[in-house]
Design brief:
584 residues; alpha/beta; Isoleucyl-tRNA Synthetase, Domain 1; 3-stranded antiparallel beta sheet; disordered N terminus; 52% helix; Gyrase A, domain 2
């Protein structure tokens, strides 16, 4: 419980003659605490001043009266008044120990977090590459941020449905099919199918731009596909199946899975319903041959149309996305739908959500909470979008391969005595994890600079640093001949005493706050920052206080600190989507 949040209620009760903590602190209270202020204490109740001003009371005297009536909390907290009326609550060493004993497993941590999103069914729309193309660095952020958000929400009690809304339909297939039938290189197709598909699309696109006759033929190929021509449908399916298999190889590397892969083609037969209903509701009308929606109350969208059917009669992203919202509401019974998409698409989602809100209201449907979780661009060290020297997008598989190779060199330098197979396996986890963590440790709405030297380093806020911290704790238990997580060596522990012990114990109890902040704002970087600070606090403790002591009670309490640090680091890294190591 957050005492500072309940302070006004406590003051009201006190002035009414009731115990201020009645109903706030249950009899036999054990600390399900969420520390918030490491400078002033574990809690700082600073609402006294504003309350005293409203009620024309002396804030210091009011604080003093409140503190005297909080006697039942004194076994748990050191309570003191600071300044004109701030009340500081500092967890006592015995309370810290009790909290750490109560949160000894991942299940115990999850039980405390599960109430936050319980009852929510959340569809998370992320990754969403286009088939017939290679995944490139531009697809990185949606994939890793989306997966981390899914894991955070699941840990917090939500039912999460991961939906990869792939781009597997549209005008590009007419040009691709035209080129496939005329310019296919079978050897290239066997060697690297996606690369050959990309080449064919470029060939078809250039030819269509240069020759109106080719453009007409490509359009005819698309019409045949949309009419379910057997030959074109078979080629389209082959292209998509090959693409999805290639995507899956990258998803496997990143530890990403999906519950649904409902691409644009899935909604192709549902778009007519969108046209009919939006027109029947009076939301959509014709403008220059297209079917559009305007929002008169909006400063820009009153003149900027939301096109749901193009002038040539074709559906587009808007139509498809409206059909998707309806399906997620009716089929998945979603309470929330989150879209992890580039911030450059903000206008589209603003118009989409406005339109969906009015449409659902007019048709008496329950609209899920819709939110666009935007993200910035991955930049090179020149401050421009990360690309190859030739100006091409960097393929994601090549980026991950380079990360693994750089990590192999780092691991080999750190532990040259390890067998090569072990170094390769470690490098795979460190390399991929470094790419994931470098992205997740940034505020998702911001652009960030992709710098290899900072990313794959044992110094600073990096995956390698955190994975090494976990491996180091495992090595402590190996040297002591103890299995990590075993409660037996923790028996008989006495409350913490040294400054380093107390600082680490307090930092450990901050985990629920970091988790709550990451979940409520859907920004994984808050959890990254906490894990980095926790690893630093552990390093300070380990350098200051010896663990392998003869004094059994002191050794036990220090083993608790080691074990809980390991647990929280491992839990946090897994929630971010990283794989773990016990040796490095």
């Amino acid at each position: 419980m957050d005492l500072s949040f309940d302070l006004v209620t406590a003051l009201d009760r006190m002035l009414a003659g009731a115990a201020p903590h009645a109903g706030l602190v249950e009899p036999g209270f054990t600390p399900e605490v969420r520390p918030a202020d490491p400078v002033h204490g574990d809690f700082q109740a600073n609402g006294v001043l504003a309350y005293a001003k409203r009620h024309r009371q002396n804030p210091r005297a009011l604080a003093d009266t409140l503190v005297r009536q909080l006697g039942e909390l004194t076994p748990l907290f050191d309570i003191a008044i600071a300044g004109p009326g701030f009340i500081n609550f500092k967890l006592k060493p015995a309370t810290l120990l009790a909290w750490l004993k109560a949160h000894a497993t991942r299940d115990a941590l999850a039980a405390g977090a599960a109430a936050a999103e319980h009852g929510h069914t959340v569809v998370v729309d992320y990754s969403s590459p286009n088939t017939a193309k290679q995944m490139h660095v531009g697809h990185l952020r949606s994939a890793v941020i989306g997966e981390a958000i899914c894991r955070l929400l699941e840990f917090s009690g939500a039912k999460v449905i991961r939906d990869n809304h792939v781009g597997d339909w549209g005008t590009q297939f007419g040009k691709l099919l035209w080129a496939y039938k005329r310019h296919l290189d079978p050897a290239a197709l066997a060697r690297d199918p996606l690369e050959e598909f990309e080449r064919l699309y470029k060939t078809g696109n250039h030819a269509a731009e240069a020759d109106p006759a080719v453009l007409k033929e490509a359009q005819q190929e698309l019409v045949k596909l949309q009419a379910h021509d057997p030959e074109n449908l078979a080629l389209w399916k082959k292209i998509n199946d090959t693409s999805l298999a290639a995507f899956q190889q990258i998803y496997d590397q990143l530890g990403i899975r999906f519950d649904a892969m409902l691409g644009e083609s899935f909604y192709n037969d549902r778009v007519d319903q969108i046209y009919r209903e939006l027109m029947a509701c009076g939301l959509a009308g014709e403008s220059q041959g297209a079917l559009v929606v305007f929002h008169p109350e909006h400063p820009r969208f009153k003149t900027q149309p939301f096109i749901i059917r193009k002038s040539d009669g074709a559906a587009n992203y808007a139509t498809n996305d409206l059909a998707t919202i309806l399906y997620r509401a009716e089929h998945f019974h979603a309470t929330d739908a989150l879209y992890v998409v580039d911030k450059r698409q903000s206008d589209h989602f603003d118009q989409l959500f406005l339109t969906a809100g009015k449409w659902f209201e007019k048709t008496d449907r329950a609209l899920p909470r819709l939110e666009h979780l935007d993200f910035g661009t991955v930049l090179g060290e020149n401050g421009k979008p990360l690309q190859t020297r030739s100006g091409e997008n960097i393929r994601l598989k090549d980026l991950l391969a380079e990360a693994v190779e750089r990590s192999y060199r780092l691991v080999s330098e750190k532990n040259p005595e390890l067998p090569d197979s072990d170094r390769r396996a470690i490098a795979q986890i460190v390399g991929v994890g470094s790419v994931q963590y470098a992205d997740l440790s940034q505020n998702r709405s911001s652009d960030y600079v992709f710098a290899w030297d900072k990313m794959i380093s044992l110094d600073g806020n990096t995956a390698a640093y955190l994975l090494y911290a976990v491996a180091r704790i495992h090595s402590i238990f190996r040297k002591l001949g103890l299995p990590p997580g075993d409660a037996a060596p923790e028996a008989g522990a006495i409350p913490f005493e040294t400054p380093a012990e107390l600082a680490l114990a307090r930092k450990l109890t901050h985990f629920p706050d970091a988790l709550d902040l990451a979940v409520q704002q859907l920004r994984p970087h808050f959890l990254c920052t906490y894990l980095y600070e926790l690893a630093g606090e552990f390093s300070t403790f380990y350098n200051a206080d010896k663990v392998a002591l003869e004094d059994a009670p002191v050794r036990a309490r220090r083993l608790i600190l080691c074990n809980r640090t390991r647990l929280l680091l491992e839990t946090g890294l897994q929630l971010l989507g990283l794989r773990l190591l016990t040796k490095m």
